[in-house]
């Protein structure tokens, strides 16, 4: 039970009968009353005064959330209560003298442990409210493990989520490599254009056609300069930010991966401790039963002393089991909270990554448009000069520049 989702009720709100000492009434999120013994932590749906001397069925409110996992995997509407409990309740303590040391009889068929993580069975578990209703959020759908179709082994839900993020990291790397190659192409192209603009080919052409030809070669030099500037901007405004973001993204992924992995290892260790303590309790109870049977056969001081000793060991084993269960629940609660926090952080990082890539691709296309426009401006003078080419004018210009005199020769007299 999570106290945050319940409120104390006065006894006369339900029945006029007074509560036995230590008992209080609470309301489940669905509006059903249940009762808690604040001394023993015992819970029941029935009024404690009406069940005096009889076995009480433990109360399990239908809205209990285990690891925030919805067994059907479908989105739910917003629950009536505004807060979703992140911490799992501690496991109910059982008496060391219980006849079933491994599990309580009323819960053995409602839970299952998969790779050291305890889940409710889909057939027995109530619907659990999503942490982010109406949103297909990572924090709601990556709790259980998944079988790897290639290796046949199970991978954790977080590992599936992490692999998706690692693909994004790989994409950033490949995009940076693409930009690097594009920069090399631009630089090489600019180098070749500049070299071509300096060749002396057809330099002997004169007149308006020669002027157009000279402008054409000059346009190559201008175009080379444009492509050099384009490659420099690609490096500073696209490639470098991509590489910087990729490095930071890689560090975040490594940090989250190691953190969740360590928590899962701790959870596995705690689960092993629970199983070990459970087996020890079973052995102690079996030994106690044997000693009790021996006492029934023959009553001796030694047998009675053995029974007392066996009872003490059984009690100690029960206490150890409860301690291990508490440690396991603490570890699982910590793992759960960190999974929620980390999955939401991965969600945020993915949005940031996509937006960053989108912005830099737009910057790339903007630079390309600018380059194309500049390229067009460099060839416009060439087009205008080619349209004004006039062979007659070219002759006139040449003559004016190269004439030697206006007096023409005449016939010689003999």
From TrEMBL:
Compositional bias segments (type: Polar residues): 92-102
Keywords: Coiled coil
GO CC entries: clathrin-coated pit; clathrin-coated vesicle; plasma membrane
Record's keyword annotation contains Coiled coil: yes
Keyword Transferase: no
BP GO annotations: clathrin coat assembly; clathrin-dependent endocytosis; neuron projection morphogenesis
Region (Disordered), start-end ranges: 1-27, 44-110
Short name of one Pfam family: FCH
Coiled-coil blocks: 246-305
Matching InterPro entries: AH/BAR_dom_sf, F_BAR_dom, FCH_dom, GAS7_F-BAR, WW_dom, WW_dom_sf
Domain WW: 17-50
PANTHER family in the record: GROWTH ARREST-SPECIFIC PROTEIN 7, PROLINE-SERINE-THREONINE PHOSPHATASE INTERACTING PROTEIN 1
Record's protein name: Growth arrest-specific protein 7
